[in-house]
Target: PLP-dependent aminotransferase family protein
Amino acid sequence: MDSPVKIPYQSFIKINRNSAVSIYMQISNQLINAIQRGFLPFGTKLPGTRMLSEMLNVHRNTIVSVYEELFSQGWVESLPNKGTFIIGKDQYQFLESKNSKKIQLENYPKSTGFTFKTSNILDNPFEYSNCEYIFNDGIPDIRLTQIDQHSRIYSSILKRKAHKIGQYNQDGSEFFKENLSKYLNLSRGLPISKNNLLITRSTEMSIYIASEILLSKGDIVLVAELSYFSVNMIFQKSGVKIKSVSIDNDGINTEEVRKICQQQKVRMLYLTPHHHYPTTVTLSAQRRLELLNLANEFGFIILEDDYDYDFHYDKSPLLPLASADTNGMVIYIGSFGKSLAPGFRTGFIVAPENLMSEMRKHLGIIDRQGDILMEHVLGEMIAEGEINRYLKKSLKIYQERRDYFIHLIQENLGNYIQFEKPSGGLAVWAEWQIPINLMQLSKNCAQNNLFIPKTLLYQNKNLTAIRLGFGNLNTIEMEKSVKIVTDHVKKMLH
Model:
């Protein structure tokens, strides 16, 4: 085999003396990489420890440790009076180079060596920007979260109760489920126990699990004419046929739902009744009863997504459809801790026990570890009443922001848009009364440090509308953001 001096070790062994990884392990890992890539094939004699230490400008003892590491992992063997050799199957050919001093190990492969299915259905629809001001989808302001307090509770539980928590299983924290079921019973009228709960990471995960179990290719799923794009992506991935139903000021049109059911077998109806996404319209009490009756009559599932139930200002919110469901036709999906710091938020599913047992199987595959400590923190916040105190405080701030935002857009854009003051939630739905290119408006605003994602823009031949989240903006940010939009609207119209 080639003499050790002919192999340009310096070209593929790079030492970072500022790294947290020890130097001997850096060298060991790069030599193993070279062996795996074929640069050091079977039978290659490695340089003596003194020679390699001089090549790499490290202490000889470092190279001694390197060789010991290679030996312990089974990459080399040491033969008395002969030296240290690479061992293994002779399946590589040494790669020659006319200019051997420039030989370097290849980077990680840029593409697979095999084919696989691709799909554009799940392409990421979200955009990101470094603009100072951002209109989002109605996301809470992380600056209002009491991160220090949450962290103290987390730390306290870790110290006091870690030994009591035990091992996590796919059912999650029993303590959290017990308290969450009581909380949902009192706040949303859901007469459930912990056995009716599945804890997930997000609303999207909840809907994905429900779709995997409840939907088959070719099933018909009804959604509102305007609906949450991420959920539609999940349904499309399931291979179902999506049919849209019109909406008005009372929510989804129940007469259209009936007509479709009379003509075709509908498997599921997805809706956001508390504040319809994206228009923020609340489904009327009468239509809620009509939908429950239709579900019982035609046998379709109602997938109720209550994504922002906690955010209501002017009056008490209507109770979920699931609270009045006596025949097991409604699957209720929600989020908990949405106004808390991101790491303290979670999703959940409420369903009859027979379906819940099947859902736990799927959760056990995709999220078996879970986060039992975080769940325990949330459970303690419920048990001690902390979540209610926090929601009461944050709701006051968000209501003030809603009122001021409504004032600003009415004063500055009232001649161009039409909107209703939302009774809850963190976004305003505005329909433009003038012909305007929303994509161009978004690009123009970005030039002045205001980011308006395309996912907030709704424009076709019959509709020009925008969903503007205000929850993340303080007073000054609202004023500047609305001014930027107003200035560009006027420029585009004149």
In short: DSSP finds 16 helices and 18 strands in the chain. Confidence is low (pLDDT under 50) at residues 91-104. Residues 386-413 form the longest helix (28 residues).
